[in-house]
Amino acid sequence: MEKPNSGLARTKSDQLVETVTDAFKSPTSSETVAVAAEGGSGTISRKSSRRMLAASPGRGSGSGKGSTHIRKTRSAQMKFELDEVSSGAALSRASSASLGFSFSFTGFTVPAEEIADSKPFSDDDDFPEDLEAGNRKLKFQTEPTLPIYLKFTDVTYKVILKGMRTNEEKDILNGITGSVNPGEVLALMGPSGSGKTSLLNLLGGRIAKGNVGGSINYNEQTYSKFLKSRIGFVTQDDVLFPHLTVKETLTYAALLRLSKTLTKEQKEKRAIDVIYELGLERCQDTMIGGSFVRGVSGGERKRVCIGNEIIINPSLLFLDEPTSGLDSTTALRIVQMLQDIAEAGKTVVTTIHQPSSRLFHKFDKLILLGKGSLLYFGKASEAMVYFSSIGCSPLIAMNPAEFLLDLANGNLNDVSVPSELEDKVQMENSEADTRHGKPSPVVVHEYLVEAYETRVADEEKKKLMVPLPLDEELKLKISFSKREWGASWWEQFCILFCRGIKERKHDYFSWLRITQVLSTAVILGLLWWQSDGNTTKGLEDQAGLLFFIAVFWGFFPVFTAIFTFPQERAMLTKERAADMYRLSAYFLARTTSDLPLDLLLPVLFLVVVYFMAGLRLSADTFFLSMLIVFLCIVAAQGLGLAIGATLMDLKRATTLASVTVMTFMLAGGFFVKKVPVFISWIRFMSFNYHTYNLLLKVQFQDIIPTINGSSTDCSLTGVGALVAMVFGYRFLAYLSLRRMKLQGGA
User: Which parts of the sequence are annotated with region: Disordered (predicted)?
Assistant: First the structure.
């Protein structure tokens, strides 16, 4: 193996490498560590250091051992940090996560041209595809960020369960106390239903103040709207638009959330940086996908969700079960990424459900919940020691996380029984309190809660009572109550408009929808093929066709628009809770972005039907007919939007829309000519009625005064009525969205 060139001075890093090489006699490890540079470069960058571990150490030198590299296994990991090397000390960091050695070389100067290309070592050396892009440190993630110290004391949360006759109050959280500082990862563990997600939502400001007790402080201040721009919150469900690509998703998030002080180009560059930071460059042009659309994998989808939040360089990052549904290796990669984020000076809080032993050892602090009560808070590495001190120790080798979850569930199988509980079992010895000689889960839970309160709780509360040494400036920034929007109203509208068209063009131009409209048009054209407009019978047939057109383009848009807001409720809740945009900008962009797509199929429909049926061949008549149909479509859309936004439930909305549209159709003036006075007002609310009368006026005004009992010389009040419906129904939909209870009171 070739020696590095003499351009690199002998430093402490070199001495450190030689020490480790002497200590470990394996030819593989010694040969790998001995490499100081590739191709004889005079300096070592973090990039080249990483290649020494992941790629062939003898590449380019013709060495026969070019394929030798270090593989991580399951025993221990050793890292040498910057401060440790500079002080001459080499401390090992061991865990049951992985075996292998990754070295950070310091003590030398990296040229300026290599800084931009530098990146840290990856924990995914077993996966070559992620080596070059797995865990890259972004410049903006190392930028100074507002440090936030999170403390919470005696947090309680209750919900009211509404019954048939009485309301029942249920306790979700009972006096939870803890803290987490910048640079730390706090894990919330517990069985299903223990209150992990509720506690996370409370800490993240996602639950409106109501039945909430205790205190939650951020830098000794209470929650304010300003914190929305400093908090990243990754929900358990991956709420993403399925037809947008990874790059488009993160770019739109950057344009909407990043500060106004950045230009559009800077925001787009930051989105690209996040893509490379998360190792998503291979799939950046792939659609996210969903239930019926093929897209990225589950791990990539979760990384996109995390990227949506870390793109704003948050001070606090909350994650709800980020590893659920992922394999152990992908989950490890996600948690390692959270650790890297925390090391950049951010505060990370995550719920976790049954992590592997490798994941468990990567957490700094741990909160263990059981039935809403606190069973443990402290360093994750000291959890096993604490439970051993109260008499609960595993009798067989097991994953610490499994052991803790068994305790939280009250399961003492393969766990030593504390002497206090043994005495209780022997004294009472009743079926209500024992199971096969073991204490019941209720008894175990009470014992664990009491043990924590008597041994640890008071001491932890005293620690939290000590004020943090923070200057007033940090405290004032937190208490600043004004919201910070990332873009102006007009910019938000334009961004959301473009996003809406890109997302929904696939639905509007699907072969199913086009086939539906075209087949209907062809069938109508064949049934009314070249109808005779010179006879009364032929004119009556054409009037029937016009009524069907009014009904079809009133019915079709209503049931399309009903799905708009109920389907996007999760996305709207998530983005509004993060203050990504104003509701008015979203509403107008959402409703107007549909118009260009909604008006293309009616044009195709009318062109086919109009000329096949032999309607009045005049340019003025044709374009006026098309304009009337457009007006009907937009009015019907408004009704669908209002029903969907008001009910936010597809079954109920579809039922109400069916009854409403049927009523409007029957009152449209074709089936019933003489409607009783007390119910005749319904026809004036029917867009079918106004559309039908306007089409009759355009087609037959100069030919026949009345047809099928309807006058062809109606006034233009129908146009005003349709315009009023266009704006009135939409305003009702907007008010309904305003009143919608968003999670977190956004």
Answer: 23-71
Give the integer Cα–Cα distance in Å for 633 and 729. Answer: 13
SS3 112: helix
Burial class (CB in 10 A: 0-12, 13-18, 19+), 663: middle
Is-contact 710 669, C-beta < 8 A? yes
659-690 per-position pLDDT tens digit: 999 998 888 777 877 778 888 888 888 999 89
Chain-centre distance for alpha carbon 258: 17
DSSP of 624-677, one letter per residue?
HHHHHHHHHHHHHHHHHHHHHHHH--HHHHHHHHHHHHHHHHHTTSSS-SS--G
pTM of the model: 0.76
Please name the residues in contact with 226: beta carbons below 8 A apart, sequence gap of 6 or more: 477, 478, 479, 480, 481, 482, 483, 484
| Residue, of 370 and 167, whose pLDDT is higher | 370
Residues 588-608 have pLDDT tens digits of 999 999 888 788 889 999 999
pLDDT for 423: 72
Please give the pLDDT value at position 17: 39
- Kind and range of the H or E run holding 129: none
| pLDDT for residue 415 | 86
Q: Return phi, psi of residue 16, to 5°.
A: -65, -45
The tokens describing 123, both together, are: 């924990």
Q: Give the H/E segment covering residue 400.
A: helix 400-408
Beta partners for residue 5, in sequence order: none
Higher confidence at residue 744 or residue 624? 624
The secondary structure of 173-206, three-state, reads EEEEEEEECCCCEEEEECCCCCCHHHHHHHHCCC
